[in-house]
Amino acid sequence: xxxxxxxxxxxxxxxxxxxxxxxxxxxxxxxxxxxxxxxxxxxxxxxxxxxxxxxxxxxxxxxxxxxxxxxxxxxxxxxxxxxxxxxxxxxxxxxxxxxxxxxxxxxxxxxxxxxxxxxxxxxxxxxxxxxxxxxxxxxxxxxxxxxxxxxxxxxxxxxxxxxxxxxxxxxxxxxxxxxxxxxxxxxxxxxxxxxxxxxxxxxxxxxxxxxxxxxxxxxxxxxxxxxxxxxxxxxxxxxxxxxxxxxxxxxxxxxxxxxxxxxxxxxxxxxxxxxxxxxxxxxxxxxxxxxxxxxxxxxxxxxxxxxxxxxxxxxxxxxxxxxxxxxxxxxxxxxxxxxxxxxxxxxxxxx
Length: 351
Prior knowledge:
Largest sheet: 5 strands, parallel
Order of helices and strands: HEEEEHEHEHEHEHHEHEHEHHEHHH
Mean pLDDT: 90
Number of strands: 12
Structural class: alpha/beta
Low-confidence stretches: 1-30
């Protein structure tokens, strides 16, 4: 009997050891790392191994000459980092982006949102950027020999981290620091302008469909607070981006202002809310304080330093006595001159 028990323990011990070895192998295969994103773990004369925002170890070529992506949020970051000429593969783009970087029109299509592995294998870029949450795609791209860096820009903190990470892997660290300095300076200026407001306006920012809102964990939700407003949805218990609060909750909040995403995916307009009898008793609707976040050409609520313009716009809208229309226009001009080396008229941008 004792001998049988001994055999069972030996078998169990072997199973545990094998399981442990398998787990270690799996973790090694994924190249996961607990160090902060942007940490350089090792480097040679031509390469460096860095931790991306998915916690993965990625070995990249120093100062890559060609970059591909199908996660379109990344494009503005690369253009602001002055890396636009290196983009050789892209998914969905926009007229505005092609206007500031004409070479995007000639880029190979490597998938719109979902990576086209065959196209990437043919293109063979030095580097591929993708959203950090899509580990499957990051690993699939690395399997064909292309370094894949995971990016997360959904919160202000992660966004700053992303700028510095991308600057490091692209060989544009100095420019990345300039972008972060500009971003923080703009936010400090906004904070100064709203200082001393005794009765703050309440507001929500609704997403692509009615009832979806930016909660307190989202960049868009923080933009309201940075502009001197109180985000009604800041304490919403949510486990997803753009959680559904529902119209009943929005009526209970009864916000002073309703901002709407300027995303092309929006299935309704400000006019729809203003003309809907069911919304007529809501304070923001009654006082006609329903606005789409500009601009028609370049979204000011997109993750990136452009979100400072969204803050400026909301501040001007809720507290025009603290930021005039003329001052807003000056700040818009200064932003585009810094970010893209040129300016656009108010009519061109559509705000």
